[in-house]
Amino acid sequence: MEPSGMISLLEAKLRQLLGPSTDTLVAMEATGHYWKNLFAMLAGEGFAVALLNPRRTSRFAQEELERTKTDAMDALNIARFAAQKRPAATRLTDQATDELRELVRHRDRLVQQFGDRTRQLHRLVDLGFPEFTRHVHSLDSELATTVLQEYPTAAAFHGLAPGRLSRLRYDGRHVVGPTLARALIEAARVSVGRHHGPAYRVQVHHCCEDMDLLRRRLREVDGDIRRTLDEHEVGTLLTTIDGIGPTTAARIIAEVGDPASFISPATLAAYVGVVPALKQSGKRQPQRAGCSSLGNARLRAALWMPTLTAVKKNPWLRAYYERLIARGKLPKLRRMAEFFAREYRRVSDHTNFAMAAASLTGCVREIEDILSQVETGPGGTEV
Fold first, then answer.
1. What are the chain's domains?
2. Is the entire prediction scored with pTM above 0.90?
């Protein structure tokens, strides 16, 4: 039987099992990617489909003291959960939102691969030409990969004329220049890694090639994200918020969809995981509650830096931030310092630990002074 015929037979069997779409609720866990086509097909047929958080179904099974875990038992557990809890049906996302989600996930994989290659390159450069990073500080830059692709190890610089290296062009616009060229050649001449041979050259060359390819792909994906975001009404509105650029807006759409679909701001905050989780028991009565470990970790990480920018630029957010500080909420830097200082003292009252705690607290004060100067600028002018 042809694959298309088999799929049609399975669809017909599924419709027969489920019955009319008007009085049927289908529940499934949103894990992996296998659910997506089934969800789209059922939603297109008019079925109410509820996508469930696997943590909820797992907790539900624990309530029943389930000791066996098989696919059949999981299916039965999901059916019981749907019958008792009656979860709301999940709406089918629009095409622009689905494309943004896929593009953001793809970008994350490219960034991860680029970071992996950068770490590999660090190892190889530390062995084959460790002095290189004294002159080119960032190995993930186009300058570094261009130079190392041509001259992967210290031995490759042997006999190289400074003029030739100085004319080497990177990023399509700039050249290495005579000063840097002479410094690299001199460093390579006395490098402790100049004895390494072809095996290191091949690895460095391949790493640099991969990084150049990944860099181009990231630019392409960023362009695709911007173009797709222009067609998304909510995404376009998000970019008007201080601190929210195209990448962050796409991340919010990818993880949340339409923020207006949440019944309240508190519900959205709980989904992201930026709500306090107070834990008190017996004599343990902490005065402060840390953030809950539940929630969307990817979105929290993506919103961290935009929030700092928004607090500086948005008067309303700045006023809200200052109200929190006035109520006793500590800035993150000082919270970390006090935590480590407290832990130092808990470990030991030895002078070394006390000095470390005092030093850490002093460093935080210095950093806060520097940050306040950066924010206000010389003479009190805002930067």
1. 3-92 (no CATH), 98-229 (1.10.287.4070), 330-383 (no CATH)
2. no
